[in-house]
Amino acid sequence: MSRVLTYAKAINEALFQSMERDASVFILGEDVAKMGGDFGITQGISYKWPDRIFDTALSESAILGLSNGAALCGLRPVPEIMFADFLGVCYDQLVNNAAKLRFMFQGKAGAPITVRAVQGAGIRCAYHHSACVESWFMNTPGLVVVSPSSPYEAKGMLNAAIRNDNPVIFLEHKLLYNTKGEVPEEYYEVPLYEAEVEREGSDVTIIGLQITLPMAHAAAKQLEKKGVSCEIIDLRTVAPYDKETLKASVAKTGRLVIAQEGPRCGGWAAELSAMISEDLFEYLRAPIKRVTSLDVPIAFAPALEDFVLPKTEQIVAACEALMEY
Amino acid sequence: MALAKERLLKVYKDMFMIRRFEEVIQEYAANGTIPGFVHLSIGQEACQAGVVEALQRTDYKFPDHRGHGAIALCGTDPKLVMAEIFAKATGINGGRGGSMHVNDLEYRNMGFNGIQGSTMVTCLGTAFASVYNKTKDVTAVFLGDGTLGEGACHESLNLAATWKLPVLYCLVNNQYAISTNYHDAHPQQELKTWGEGYEIPSCRIDGNDVEAVIETVEVAAEHARNGEGPALIEMMTYRWQGHFAGDPAAYRPEEEVAAWKAKDPVKKTRGDLMQKHGFSEEALTAIEAGIEADIAEMLRFSLESPAPKIEEALTFVYADREVEA
Ligand SMILES: Cc1ncc(C[n+]2csc(CCOP(=O)(O)OP(=O)(O)O)c2C)c(N)n1
Ligand SMILES: [Mg+2]
What we know:
Shape of chain B: globular
Order of helices and strands of chain B: HHEHHHEHEEEHHEHEHHH
CATH topology of chain B: Rossmann fold
Helix content of chain B: 40-55%
Radius of gyration of chain A: 20 Å
Structural class of chain A: alpha/beta
Helix content of chain A: 25-40%
Largest sheet of chain B: 5 strands, parallel
Strand content of chain A: 15-25%
Radius of gyration of chain B: 19 Å
Strand order of the largest sheet of chain B: 1-2-3-7-6
Strand content of chain B: 5-15%
CATH superfamily of chain B: Thiamin diphosphate (ThDP)-binding fold, Pyr/PP domains
CATH architecture of the largest domain in chain A: 3-Layer(aba) Sandwich
Number of helices of chain B: 12
Bound molecules: thiamine diphosphate, magnesium ion
Shape of chain A: globular
Largest interface: A-B, 37 and 43 residues
CATH class of the largest domain in chain A: Alpha Beta
CATH topology of the largest domain in chain A: Rossmann fold
Oligomer: heterodimer
Number of domains of chain B: 1
Distance between the termini of chain A: 47 Å
Low-confidence stretches of chain A: none
Order of helices and strands of chain A: EHEHEHEHHEHEHEEEEHEEHEHEHH
Mean pLDDT of chain A: 98
CATH class of chain B: Alpha Beta
Number of strands of chain B: 7
Number of domains of chain A: 2
Mean pLDDT of chain B: 97
Number of strands of chain A: 14
Largest sheet of chain A: 7 strands, mixed
């Protein structure tokens, strides 16, 4: 049975169901227990399992350090870092510890932690509360980075992330929390490492993630009227990403636009672009185009923030440029 | 030792100004005119005004996220501070920072970093520079009871104590970090013991008593100026509002809020002016009316100022080159 839930509620439900099925799962973070999280995502859990959810001091390094250590002992921590920007404070625990523990212990143990954090611009909170951080981590082998885009994905991918034996950075987008969609009631998983073709088309492939997906769909509708058929792919897992799905699509369309929130230089779009041009050069009918945020910090004033973020019109223009190439 | 009449009147005006300033911010955040998050310092005026009053213009000040009061008293024209919070081009930082990031080098307001604990280590550098350059300027850093949980705080206390850096740790203990009471985050009854652990002269004072704040900070600043090293001052107070404007703060008992409202620092100072220094009700009302007029002018200025031009989003990213749009 499925019903309509918000993205926020879908994540909350995944936490409940994962905790239900596995007693080694526990939660820690700032204001997660008594208050139920700064964005309300862990609400209700402390009533059901007061001994499995913990409010910490403001101590991101300790939150992730404890998680890594507990994971080595067979527990499955699901720490919350209030804003993804704060992952900078505990970067070492992710990049030099979680990512490498399995390698270090020759596979006898690892860090099956799922770090939840909220990312993204759009709520006028300036340069320390607005980053999209996938690219901070995708250059680190051993880390899994996922960014769900719908309530269905959010629940299914969080369940899969918690059961996965790797350290997973699970990035929720703050502008998506109130979006609604069909979500099955029962426990289910959406597999990691698999992108999804959301719309089939034959002329241009658009790869998007989180808030650039609705833009891609809006662009596709406009382009359809002009006779351009767009295929839209939701990347879902950013690292390690699904080469096969991406390649199959671009081999068919011969044109690729990648729509990414976050600075252009060194972003995940750059990696996808490099991979496609290396592996699929002879299939491409036009250069690959990226639509991204500008290479600047996010400013506070709404006009400044809006100016630097990717937009539907830019996706439309990029697709048109490829068609005319 | 009590403050002289004129000086107490001056800080009363400061406190009254920031109370009204914050109430205006609260109103315009609630009605949606001010974007983003604002953290109000209503109830904490004695800490804000007292610390700034005890410092020199050339001393370095690191306000925290709840720092509108200190920021507006450092010497910057308060209407430029208000305009910044309103995201306007006329704001002291051109609208790029907003409530959490107001800074003004001219008055050595070194700004806040939205990442808690971060300024706790940056402040070592300004203190170091004073020593290195053989000036007598001290550095005052504001932090909350919750922020003390960040590992950076330990690094800061340790280094400042060992190197005898002129840092004043102005620890505003308003007893909560969002929903978490300081007793649930730290084992100590009194947080001043954090300083004592590093052999830093430390004390706990009534943070709603502006005379106590000024006197304590002045003594500490004098010591620091003379090369005797850092001090930690734990100021006991309470934030009347939620963590951010709009937070209902359901995690706090109503009686507790009421008890602290009864210890209103602005009212207390007003009472002292009347009882100890013979000010009449009429005299104070007239003074307050003058401040109300100033506030009305700041508000008019903030509302009527234009939004920043979008090209501003691309400025000041690099020292020596432009960013492409
Ligand atoms: C590194 C980091 N962790 C968490 C936060 C989110 N956050 C902002 S203020 C705050 C509570 C701070 O409490 P305290 O230091 O007591 O200051 P108060 O808000 O009470 O003035 C939290 C958790 C942050 N901004 N940065
Ligand atoms: Mg506090």
